[in-house]
Specification:
524 residues, mainly alpha, two-stranded antiparallel sheet, elongated
Length: 524
């Protein structure tokens, strides 16, 4: 065998070796969880097989959260090339873990989102089996979604699991269908609000910076204000959601503290942006360069907030099982021991490092093309939407918000490109038959004009428009040439389909798992 054949063999087996390494590392993590929980004493001082199995499933769930859910926080930063894949994984792993361990909740509602009535559950054993089935179903569904490249909601996966296992355990009446209706509404509310806010921020950036003749000068005025708004949004969000473990406060107080932090941030950022901008050429690429550092901070803060707010919800069923094994009762609230939060934090970091790159690429580059300005608008939308939704009690999903924001940015780009193409087509129609040099000069002047000047130029063209002999059908055929799809429809349809079936799919899986677990645990 010559060296060429050896190299071909090496290349052919490289992918399978990487897969085996990922699988082996994840399996080692699960084995360590088994060894740890086997030494825990529950209730009477005996080792609990149920707790060992539940902890294994909890670790598996945490890995899948890292592989799927965390991509929403860092995907746009990677897609815009503000962060490398390695840098994003390191930042997300550190801040997700810090958020979970420092600011994660001490107490969790054992019945996720109040979707089933615990009084209709027969006994503590049935409750334990129910939660075990819900946790396993949520983890399996996240694993399947990650395999097909669809970012889905961890919370919705758990909700579906609790609902399906609850119905299997106590019948249809156990479900709170009003609450389920509100959760179903969030499938539409979350991405729409996220998309609209992201599109709004992007339009603000375009009108105040990139549509100006002096883009660098405009960026020096606007960027510090945008970063101050980001500081207000994230500080308010972290005070309300992330720090409620150590300090509880109301919305108004958190908002006022956030405004004070925003004002201080503005004073610090303004001279820093001026120093960085003074040597940059007047171009869009230079403006994007100014957004890199704020975007990195946004990715880190989103990861911290996600770790603080969502990890506890994800490992909630494991905490509920642990509490039920200790008390032999069904409780509506349970404490989350430190060891469970550690499993959640480490598992998420491992899942992100081993399996996260696939979903990070999906969110960052496979839906629509992102630059730093677009990614910054997405991060802003994710933070502000969660704050507004929490205040008004809207049942939103952070995953749906972030991915909806990506869609919003992409569809706004399509709309703007289409409008611009139609405007250029009107100019060409008007100048038909005239000198090409004059036409190109007019289009060049049009492209450099402000929004107001563009409107005036088009209005003047329409005012002195002559009949060109083109039918309406012919004009439409000309315009279609310029209609570009900047959002990949295949990715859009795949992700939306996954969102729609998340709750029912995890519910069906949970019901099947519950019957299997009950069949194994009941005495013969």
């Amino acid at each position: 065998m010559d060296f060429r054949n050896i190299n071909d063999l090496e290349n052919a087996t490289s992918k399978s070796r990487k897969e085996m390494f990922r699988f082996g590392t994840a399996l080692l993590f699960i084995v360590l969880i088994i060894l740890f929980t086997a030494n825990l004493q529950v209730g009477t001082g005996t080792v609990s097989v149920e707790l060992i199995i539940a902890a294994m499933i909890g670790g598996y769930m945490a890995i899948n959260i890292g592989a799927n859910d965390v991509a929403n926080n860092v995907g746009p930063a990677v897609g815009s090339k503000a962060l490398t894949m390695t840098g994003a994984i390191i930042i997300a792993a550190i801040f997700e873990s810090a958020g979970a361990l420092i600011a994660g909740g001490e107490v969790i509602n054992t019945i996720s989102k109040g979707i089933i009535d615990p009084q209709l559950i027969d006994n503590a054993d049935t409750f334990i089996w129910l939660m075990m089935a819900a946790l396993l179903a949520g983890a399996v569904w996240l694993n399947l979604a990650t395999a097909v490249g669809a970012p889905v909601s961890t919370t919705h996966s758990i909700v579906g699991g609790v609902l399906g296992a609850g119905i299997a355990a106590a019948g249809w009446n156990v479900a709170n269908w009003d609450q389920m209706s509100a959760i179903a509404a969030s499938w539409v509310i979350s991405p729409v609000i996220g998309g609209l806010i992201a599109a709004g921020f992007l339009m603000w950036i375009k009108h105040s910076i990139t549509y100006k003749a002096d883009m660098i000068g405009a960026a020096q005025k606007t960027l510090p204000l945008l970063v101050a708004v980001m500081a207000w949004a994230f500080s308010t969000y972290l005070i309300l959601k992330g720090l409620n473990k150590v300090w509880k406060t109301d919305f108004l107080t958190a908002t006022l503290i956030g405004l004070a932090i925003a004002a201080l941030t503005y004073l610090i950022v303004k001279p820093a942006v001026k120093r960085q901008a003074q040597y940059l050429p007047n171009s869009k690429a230079s403006v994007n360069q100014l957004f890199i550092m704020p975007l990195i901070f946004a990715a880190a803060l989103l990861s911290f907030a996600h770790g603080a707010n969502d990890v506890a919800n994800a490992v909630g069923p494991l905490a509920a099982i642990n509490d039920a094994l200790q008390s032999h009762e069904i409780t509506t609230k349970a404490e989350i021991p430190l060891w469970i939060m550690v499993i959640g934090a480490i598992g998420i970091s491992l899942g992100l490092m081993l399996f996260g790159p696939k979903l990070i690429r999906t969110v960052g580059s496979e839906i629509t093309e992102l630059d730093q300005m677009r990614a910054f608008a997405i991060a802003m939308a994710a933070a502000i939407t969660v704050i507004v939704a929490s205040q008004f009690g809207l049942p939103v999903s952070s995953t749906h918000i972030a991915v909806g924001a990506v869609f919003g940015v992409g569809f706004l780009r399509e709309y703007l490109k289409r409008n611009y193409a139609q405007a250029v087509q009107e100019i060409k129609d008007h100048h038909q038959g005239e000198n090409d040099h004059e036409l190109n000069l007019f289009i060049d002047r049009f492209s450099k004009a402000s929004v107001g000047e563009k409107k005036q130029m088009l209005a003047e063209l329409k005012a002195m428009k002559e009949e060109l002999g083109l039918t309406k059908k012919e004009r439409k055929s000309l315009n279609k040439v310029y209609q570009k799809e900047l959002v990949k429809r295949s990715a859009f349809l795949r992700i939306v389909a996954a969102w729609i079936i998340t709750v029912p799919a995890s519910a069906i899986l949970a019901a099947l798992f519950f019957f299997a677990i009950r069949g194994m645990m009941l005495p013969a």
